[in-house]
Specification:
The complex is a heterodimer. Chain A is 71% helix and 1% strand. Chain A is built from 14 helices and two strands. In chain A, strands 1-2 form a two-stranded antiparallel ribbon. The longest helix of chain A has 35 residues. By secondary structure, chain B is mainly α. Chain B has two domains: 52 residues; 256 residues, Orthogonal Bundle (MetI-like fold). In chain B, helix 7 runs antiparallel to helix 8. The N and C termini of chain B lie far apart (63 Å). Classes of the chains: A mainly alpha, B mainly alpha. Chains A and B meet through helix 2, helix 4, helix 5, helix 6 and helix 8 of A and helix 1, helix 3, helix 4, helix 5 and helix 6 of B.
Amino acid sequence: MTKHIMPMSEDRGPRRFQKLIRHGDIPWQVILIIMSVVVMVLMIAIGWMLWQQSQHARTQFGWSFLIPTSDANWDPVNNHFQSWPFIYGTLLTSLAAIVLAVPISLGIAIFLAELCPAWLRMPLNWLVELLAAIPSVIYGLWGIFVFLPAVVTPVGDFIGNTIGKVPVLSILFAGPIPESGSSRLAAAMVLTIMIVPTITAVTRDVLLSIPDNQREASQALGSTKWESIWQVLLPYGLSGILGAVILGLGRALGETMAVTMVIGNSIEGNLSLLKPGYTMASIIANEFAEAVTPLHIEALLEIGLTLFFITLVLNIIARLLVWSVAQRTPQDARV
Amino acid sequence: MTTTRFQQLISRNQAALSARRKIVNAVMLSLTGALTLLALVPLFWIIGYVFYKGGSSINLAFFIKLPGPLGVAGFGVLNAIEGTLVMTLLACVFAIPPGVLAAFYAARYPNTPLGIVLRFSTDVLSGVPSIVVGLFVYALVVKAQGHFSAFAGGLAIAILMLPTIIRTTEEMLKLVPPTLREGSLALGAAEWKTSLSVVFPAALNGIITGFLLSISRAAGETAPLLFTALGNEHYDVWQMIVSGIAQKQNVFQILNRILDQPADSLPLTLWKYASQPYPERVQQSWAVALVLMILVLLIEIIARVWVESRKRALQG
């Protein structure tokens, strides 16, 4: 043994550093953790930024900015802002869209997950997802020039002449619908088309994650295919399906371009579904670039903050629901 | 064998009941099929109509000329095409590196506290309305800089792309067989080396597909650009490069010039033209819609075909 063995303590510093670099796992982990934290911080940053930037509007108008009133005032000239008509428009159109979209999406999801022959499933999945890939502005353009005159105006006329004549319901369904079809109903119907893919995709995945023994047990007890879907599978996946619906609602609340193009953008205090209106997203899209006074900009930012907060809460609830189904059925899920 | 009246009644009821159940079954099951067909009606209606209306007003000038005055033929939307490309490219630069690295974390440590929070906040981030992201970037960049810019537009699109990139990359990384990574670790490779030179290449095809999908979504976004990129009828990248070279500017100065001014994009142009009262502009907006739709659908279809074939190859 001629080789001189150095005592450990002498080269400890540099060798340790060298080892760290050559091995490299600690820097790698640090980079990964930093990037993950950046993604998480982004969400907090969005909320904080909007909160901070709408400070003056918040202090000046307080809760009167948000609470329901019958004679809300949106007056950029005199610097007075109340956002209730937009909140109302957003809620009404989104809820109407959900009411229309849920049965359709459930039907499609059941068909795709339970009934459809295997060779047809893939192409149908794709086609439904393509519906989600078409840009929002194209929905808007098609809506204005094709869908509104061909479908929405006749449907609106029909509703106005039937439900619109019933005493109490006439608050929500009073006609007549404008000739062009631009109305909250138009927004709700276009939104329906846009959120069906979202609800369908999540519901389909929830159904596919239900273990096969549930189906087998139900059919062994003599139920028909429909009975086992309706009485066994849907209750089993209920929380996940609810999550899917809330996800769709979140998408409907935040949808901007298509709604702005078909809703008619009118600020009149009419509550009817068949009348033109505004949504929170569409007022921002229409006025933000042209807003002049700082308070006007801050009021619009506060609407954005409200919208962010609503969608955030809805998304958190929805994801928790969807995750709860996935957690409950870990192993024997169908592929 | 004689049957009592009671027995007859029971058997009749059973027959009626089972007939009703069979009918309900048949009706509801065919209803689900009908609803599926119903959902496909708007899809084909939109695609068909855009091709029909847009196809008639597309020509070469549409792709290679800037917008001109109303009533004069032979102008196009080059500014929007270039703006879309520039901002989407910029968004990729901003979103892909952090997205992929965060996805590595999410795929490797899905059940640590940070991993759970990361996956959860990715899901939630994908639900934030695009117009809110636009407001955020306005407050962060546009207000601070004092002017609208392609840079701000690219940043807004990047934030919208991030969740899709993280989710798809994470899915693809999880599909890589664990034996591959274990083999590499057993041979003495470090964790980062295993991740970058074994796991990443194995999942690369799928990851690129994820990029394509998020790009196709990003290219159609309008709302976040309304008050970040704003729009610019004179946006001409080629012209800026030529004049930049003529003035002996370096690469960074030219890049700065391209990114630091307002830019247009296809969906933004489509929105502006569609809301104008001139039939000629509306006609052009259909043409823009056609170009945009072909772009988006093409990327989408290529990506899907690719990902399916990769999945099959990986699952064996």
